[in-house]
Amino acid sequence: MISAILFGVLCLLMALGVPVAIAMGLSSIAAVTAQGLPLVAISQRIFAGIDSFPLLAVPFFLLAAELMTGGALAQVLVRFAAQFVGHLRGGLGHTNIVTLTFFSGISGSAIADAAGPGSILIREMRKRGYSAEYSAALTAATAIVGPIIPPSIIMIIYALQDQRVSVIALFVAGVLPGLLIAVSLMLYNHWISVRRDYRGEGTFPSWREALRNTWTALPALFLPVLIVGGIHSGAFTPTEASIVAVAYALVIGMGLYRTLTVAMLPGILLRTALLTASVMLIVAASACFAWVLTIAQVPQSLARWIIGLGLDPLTFLIAVNVLLLLFGIFIEPLPGVMILVPILAPMAAALGIDPVHFAIVVIVNLTMGMITPPVGGLLFVTALVARIPVSGVIRELWPMMGVLLVVLAILTLVPEVSLFLPRLLLGP
Question: Which among 314, 412, 312 is positioned nearest to 361, based on CA atoms?
Fold first, then answer.
């Protein structure tokens, strides 16, 4: 009864266009009220959901990303990426992919990647003859690398839900899958560029110019190395790393690039506060929703049902991928991690699946939901930037989704893609 009310109210509210966090909160209240439990339990679970020290890393990583993008960082990274791939067939499309991949190591946010350097690249691609729909779709597909390459807000939230994995292990494990997605999209972009005659831009720059562009970009590119290296060496925790990232972003933005001014700080702090509030609202509502699921015995019943099927590890992973792909159509990655990981991760561990491998499969799968209608946030961001209907972006995205599904299959079937770097750098 309680589970029927919970999911019934949630589906109704989402169909009416209510934001996911609000829909989860109201559906939890409806279920608790129908069960006759005191409503004070809702407020307790909401506060318990965000009463976590590691969550302090979220606002600081968001602030570091805003500080790094506050000046001319996007242009610096575009020039750096263009010198390697800009002269190739479909060069500006390749530049888009490489730039957003580099930027992923700074922002940790798919939306930030699409709205920041993505907006610049969409405009440039349109000027050079690329269709607006293709430019927006390629930007949206590439932006999902943001939460996969460290630093990543989703990975921090995941580690809070599954104590078998650490933040640093997830950060390191996300590097190769993120690069695999980027390379796969570059191959697709080359194929499309040959078919549509999207040509390269200019020639390979002189060595002097290439060295100058690289030297200029190095301070920005060093940030993910600083974060991962500092955590791995024990110099600071993931939460402390986020504060170090803010200090580093201030130093290079104001002192080195000189593109960040004091007058820009109030706007940056306001945007960070709004982003932090939205993330924390989702985390709090998801924690409350997950608690109601628990008292409704949904995780326990689902676990018993899956165990009763007697699935082997590979079949279980395939079933989880199908479930997550369907789930991701309607739910954003953060609430998806909060709701599903406490249910699925213990079952994966019981079947002998490496928890880091399983985490990467889950994160990549749910992140792909950001480009699937009707909830996919990247669809609306890139369509808004390109000033085109969302339907045009979706039409160009379907083949790219096929490419991403192939990558997901590789990550599922070949655990070493996710586990090679953690084992190399962190040990077995």
Answer: 412
179, pLDDT greater than 70: yes
**pTM for this structure?**
0.83
Which domain, by its residues, includes 90?
A: 2-426
Which residue shows structure tokens 């079933």? Answer: 319
- Does the N-terminal peptide bond of residue 374 adopt cis geometry, omega within 30 degrees of 0? yes
Q: Please check whether residue 335 is in contact with residue 287, taking contact to mean a CB–CB distance below 8 angstroms.
A: no
Q: What is the mean pLDDT of residues 215-241?
A: 81
Quote the CA–CA distance of 396 and 384 in Å, as a whole number. Answer: 16
Q: Which of 318, 280, 323, 288 is nearest to 413 (CA)?
A: 318
Which residue has 């750096």 as its token pair? 80
Say which DSSP state 330 is in.
H
pLDDT in tens, 127-151: 888 888 999 999 999 989 888 988 8
Q: Is 197 left (phi over 0), alpha (psi -120 to 50) or beta?
A: left
What is the per-residue pLDDT across 37-91, written as a single tens digit (0 to 9) for each?
A: 787 888 888 887 777 777 777 788 888 877 877 656 767 777 777 777 777 788 8
The 3 state secondary structure assigned to 101-150 is HHHHHHHCCHHHHHHCHHHHHHHHHHHCCCCHHHHHHHHHHHHCCCCCCC
Rounded CA separation 119/418 (Å): 30
**Number of domains forming the structure of the chain:** 1
